[in-house]
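Lecture notes, structural biology module. Today: joint structure prediction for complexes of two components.
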Amino acid sequence: MFIGGKLLKLVALLVSVYICASSALHAADDQARQVLVDLVLAEDDAATQASLDKLGELGDEVIGQFVAAWRVGQVFVDEKNGGPVVLMQVGEGKYENLLTGASAAMSADAKIDRASRKLRKDLRRIVDLLDLKSPDYKKRIAAADKLGKTQNEEYLPELRELAAKQTDKKVKRAFDEAVAISELKNGNEDQLLSAVIELGELRSFGARDYIESVYQDAQQADEKNTSLIKSCETSLRLIDERQKMLDFASTLFRGLSTGSVLLLVAYGLAITFGQMGVINMAHGEFIAIGGYTVYLVQNFFIANYGVDSDVYGWYFAVSLPAAFIVSALAGALLEKGLIQFLYKRPLESLLATWAVSMVMQQAFRLKFGAANVSVSTPEWLSGSYDFFGVLMSYNRLSLIVFAILVVVVTRLLLSKTSWGLHVRATMQNRQMASSLGVPSARVNMLTFAFGSGLAGLAGAFLSQIGNVGPSMGQTYIVDSFMVVVVGGVGNLIGAAISSLGIGMIDQGLQPLLGPVMGKITVLFLIIIFLQFKPGGLFPARSRSLDD
Amino acid sequence: MNNRLLPFDTIGEKIALAVLAIFVVIFPLMNTLFPADSALHITTFQLSVWGKYLCYAVLAISLNFLWGYTGLLCLGQCLFFALGGYAFGMYLMLMIGDLGAYGTSLPDFMVFLGYSELPVHWKPFYNPWFAVFAAMWVPGLVAFVFGMLAFRSRIKGVYFSILTQALTYAAALLFFRNDFTFGGNNGFTDFKFIFGHDIREASVSRALFWASGFLLIGVYYLIAYLLKSKFGLVQRAIRDSENRVRFSGYSTTHYKVFIFVVSAMIAGLAGALYVPQAGIINPSEMWPTKGLDIVVWVAVGGRGSKFGPIIGAVLINLLKSYTTRVYPESWLIILGLVFLLVVLFMPNGVVGLWDQVKAWIQSRKADPPATVEPQLAVENES
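The predicted structure, tokenised, for the full assembly:
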């Protein structure tokens, strides 16, 4: 194997100032490195075989890395005072000492070391099986899945052996699945039958195609194996049923999360429009304010702490209250400056706020550019949770939780605090409330600010699932009004129910009609719905004729 | 003065109308009578720009008829305008014939999308008069169905506005789709012939301008005539207090549906004349913000007045073409601020400014000072 070692000259070995993050040292790793060095420097077949056997027992990352490097000629041997040093190339012009994992410089005289064909083949097998023994259970699952699907006979004994050793339920399942899939091709008749049945019982989606091909073969075979055909059919049916269930469940989840988005964007409107009677066409721009606040807070964190710092991940938590406060202040300003003059003229409030929305949109464009700005997702919100096979992304889950929170908090504020009492009194009859001593001007301002703040919060959350741009609010404004009108103007619980309902219908229709047609259908359904219930789901009851 | 066939209120109105008529007749003549280097020469480009303004004015009148006189704020007037435009655009697309990029008798976008023959609903549009007719009845039909649905269940005020916006939004999404057979987001463009003439000829531009101008005058006359009639009285009564009108035994639903349909048909005609002059029609014409643009024209010009929408449409579009050229970035801010000022301080728009100033001067003279009341009663006033 190793032939050129004796010719190498002594070269100075410089230890670099920094140590690669990938070569974090621990005991098992050290052992693997030692074995690898032995392998490279082995003088005869017996020593090589001994090293290979040892390698098979270990499951370290460095092995895979090394084998990959060896295959492309990136392993070198440097003879140095005391003994040969094995170097591995880890990047453009960067080398590390294989034994210690520390960065090292290489002399011009170092020789490339190459593995023989047979050794390469042996190593390949070890690497393939490497991940099966990885301490990381996710890697083990992925490796079992991959090797099972190759249906390669060679891996079957190893897989079987390891499957018996797995203790974790999830991992065990993956291994069993892999064994069964492999047995579909490599097993004898009994094993084949039991594998088909087992895969059916496991509801293995990955195995569906393999069972299908077994089923096809069994049907075309001259000698019909009826029990095999039957169990194939059962297994396929079981898998398909589970698939349908999962599809339904994930549609439900998507509907719930779409509904939560609608709820968040529409809830502020349900307060300003439903409770106060102000048609705020600039509601969408308050959503955009929230989005841009997140962007600014993010930039602040980047500028002051850097992207890699631990603090950076918390920028989003800071930007939520910031988004609320900034949009609430903007809302208070708008109410004081404009809306308070228009309470008796709802159509004019629609027009005036539309003008405001135009100005604000253009202001965003001038300040932040016409293109969308990028907002990153903090680590604790990325990824997803696997709920019995339904993938729920964390940001959508948090959206749902947050929507519930908003509904509950708003409800409590309105029903338990004196401000809430004042709000309800003012909304029922502005003049009467103010003549009974309710400071209606202040109540109006606070209510409008609260509604706008909610819009800002919605925008902050939308920054995680959509784009932040000057016209981001426009996307939601029509939907928001629909939610409020369908729910029944003035009824917050109605708005919550209608947003969930619209979200569900929207997501339910999308697989059938596609996103755009689904949306159009929903809009037409709403128009038809209002024929039968012009006041929405929960119409406000009143004896006034012109309500 | 009370002649039913001359339904004009004041001498001023007659003079303004006469000025408008003279402008409509003379303006295109300045294109042909004066040589290109003369100061009085109007280029073909200017002709088509002003022709478009005239179409906008017709569109604004149609909204004013709904909003100013009936109290129905429709945010989807752009939909009817675009539908009319699409109807006539279909004729223009077919007239391209085999001069398109692909050299087939099918419109280019259909070849591009893999159609082998013309869809059935396109076939009648070889006939220009069918297209003009469709530019009226298609928007009319949409307005009829939607109006029936909305007014029967007594949807009114802001709910009507929001619903019309939703309808427009849904329609725009539909027209953005490629498989809707109307060219997707590119819409129709590259027109070649109209009524057998090359669309780029100066004489065609003049004819289109005249057509737009006469449409404007005709629509103005029609609206004025209706306002003078008993019908117009009921219409304004509905605006001021719908319930009282209903209690008096009028079916306000039927009145409103009729008004809505007429208004949509007028908007459709305006769209049909707009498209050959603009040279393009695409779904962005029916995007909800366009509907609000029209509302701005009417509000700035003065809603509930006969000349207001014309002035508003022309004024705002002149301002737009000026500011987008000189301050392209601030255009929306300027428009927003102008509109805000109008909504807050000029409830009757530019047309009502003179009366407002007079009232203000009088109130300064009178002792004690009286406040200026907005002259328009507003629905839902509590």
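Point to remember: Chain A is about 65% helix and 5% strand.
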